[in-house]
């Protein structure tokens, strides 16, 4: 009898404590909702440097965009995603970028973009880093452009990259059939999937000088000139697209430009998806 009485006492005490906890709100909900999806792709990815918005370099307008409509009409090959292609929600090829260079006051944005494109392709091919001479790329492009401005075109930079001797025993081969022109954000998304990194000319705005608190491009739409960058990734669910810039690591997202897909669609002039192959001389 004593054992039964003791058991009833213990059971009753436990029931009383459980009821007390429930009514006092101390019971933890057994269902723990999943954490909210953080739409900043820099948090767990390549980028960890906090943004420190500094004024962009004054040397904008160093890319000659030209007549975009005329370029599009004369385009030999415009990249288009195949019918029925299912675009992935996110692609990030930023790890292919071997360095975030700083062009300083030099009007070499297209040369820096091409140099990084060459470096990325060389790293992917040989798993060895090599920095390519932006000053020589720029000088060679200026001989091709033959214009009086400081700026260059994407086309002259690409021709310069094809002709240069890099002293590596290999030459950069850029077949024309693997050189596709881009004019819309949807084509850029497909090009990132197909080629890894994409060379683009942007009509940049004052928003590049007046960044948002999170380091993304600001909303000021006043055009201030042309600028060449690379596109390395995007996220549809987060409505973001990004890539390396050449204004130092204290600018933007630790040196990376980042904006909404809508902003990008309005600011892109045109670009090229290029497959670079390395062949022995």
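-> sequence recovered:
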């Amino acid at each position: 009898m004593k054992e039964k009485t003791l058991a009833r006492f213990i059971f009753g005490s436990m029931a009383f404590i459980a009821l007390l906890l429930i009514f006092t709100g101390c019971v933890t909900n057994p269902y723990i909702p999943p954490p909210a999806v953080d739409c900043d792709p820099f948090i767990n990815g390549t980028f960890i440097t906090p943004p420190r918005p500094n004024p962009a370099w004054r040397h904008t307008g160093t890319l000659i965009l030209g007549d975009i409509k005329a370029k599009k009409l004369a385009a030999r090959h415009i990249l288009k995603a195949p019918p029925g292609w299912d675009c992935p929600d996110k692609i990030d090829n930023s790890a292919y970028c071997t360095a975030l260079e700083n062009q300083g006051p030099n009007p070499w944005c297209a040369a820096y973009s091409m140099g990084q494109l060459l470096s990325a392709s060389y790293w992917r091919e040989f798993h060895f880093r090599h920095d390519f001479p932006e000053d020589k790329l720029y000088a060679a492009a200026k001989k091709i452009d033959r214009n009086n401005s400081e700026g260059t075109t994407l086309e002259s930079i690409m021709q310069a990259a094809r002709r240069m001797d890099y002293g590596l025993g290999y030459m950069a081969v850029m077949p024309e059939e693997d050189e596709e022109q881009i004019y819309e954000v949807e084509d850029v998304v497909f090009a990132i999937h197909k080629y890894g990194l994409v060379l683009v000319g942007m009509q940049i705005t004052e928003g590049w000088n007046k960044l948002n608190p999170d380091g993304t491009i600001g909303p000021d739409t006043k055009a201030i000139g042309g600028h060449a960058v690379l596109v390395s990734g995007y996220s549809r669910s987060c409505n973001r697209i990004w890539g390396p810039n050449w204004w130092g690591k204290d600018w933007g997202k630790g040196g990376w430009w980042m904006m909404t897909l809508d902003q990008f669609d309005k600011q892109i002039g045109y670009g090229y998806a290029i497959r670079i192959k390395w062949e022995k001389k």
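The two ends are 99 Å apart (CA to CA).
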